[in-house]
Amino acid sequence: MSKICIIASKNSSLINFRGDLIKEWLRLGCDVVAVAPGEEAKEEVKALGAEYVTIPLSRTGFNPLKDIKTWNAIRKILIKEKPDFLFLYTIKPVIYGSLAAYFYKKCKVYSLITGLGYVFTGDSFQHKLVKALAVLLYKMALARNEKVFFQNPDDQKSFINMNLVNHGKDVLINGSGVNIQRFSPKPLPEKTVTFLLIARLIWDKGIKEYVNAAQVIKENYPQARFLLAGPYDENPASVSEKYIEEKVNEKIIKYLGHLDDVRPVIEESSVYVLPSFYREGTPRTVLESMAMGRPIITTDAPGCRETVKNGVNGFLVPVKDSMALKEVMEKFINEPELIQEMGAKSREIAENKYDVRKVNKMINETMGLISGE
Description:
Order of helices and strands: EHHEHEHEHEHEHEEHEHEHEHEEHHH
Strand content: 15-25%
Largest sheet: 7 strands, parallel
Shape: globular
CATH class of the largest domain: Alpha Beta
CATH architecture of the largest domain: 3-Layer(aba) Sandwich
CATH topology of the largest domain: Rossmann fold
Number of helices: 14
């Protein structure tokens, strides 16, 4: 019986993003040890049948003393648990988990790159320093990996071009996948066209572009609705509560806060919008909305562009272009028949390409846990 240690930077993601993968490992007869900071999702993880171990880990920022503590905690866990496989995702678990694995040679290490994120998008001098450090650490860390999974070809190409991963170690998968049974097609709203954006409230997710487009559209189509959901974030690029409150008071958007279950609000929506210029892996909310039969408006940017066949299941717009976003949103208002047609195509793509069972099968075949066809 194999033992797998999976490490996350946020404990809720073990359920929301990797729950189906953990359940599949358990079904295959593996022991699973889930590691993350905090204990909010501890009971849910244990209910799946996995063990749960907490570690000190700050999701954002580089603090040498704190990060050394993270690395040392992971090193101790590996020595104690003696896993056969180590599965890592998001930047800090990938880096510090892989580096810790140098002190436990018996485990095979696999990392999932879930996007390049804020570290690789900024232009300031501080950003450049942090990026240089991240590149150096990635290079040392990924050398310890058997394979590195990428969720989009842009990230895959970037890591190869930066010599962070050798060609042959890279494996391209279709995002995190989506549970197409849990996220099933739902009837569209009958009257008012309702747009929805779900994201952590950071500017790079296109919050301002969404709000600006909504503000202009409201002048000519006051009946259109614009929903925004997602938690405030500790990221340096976070959106302020004051900004959101102002736009709510101006009746431009309706803010729904953090949602534990996004299905009811997706069902309430007509079109899902993500104007992100954050270096996404493959946005999970886009896949969930596709699976529920919603057309997508997103940016022609890494991680986002793969989810949309332009003009088929939605539209791609340039990054940071509120007016281009406004135009395609208005197109759905003026041609509502497109919502049904493109929503059906979204569901079809979700079933054929993004079914979580297919994604997890590829991961497990690569790890040698199941045999390939």
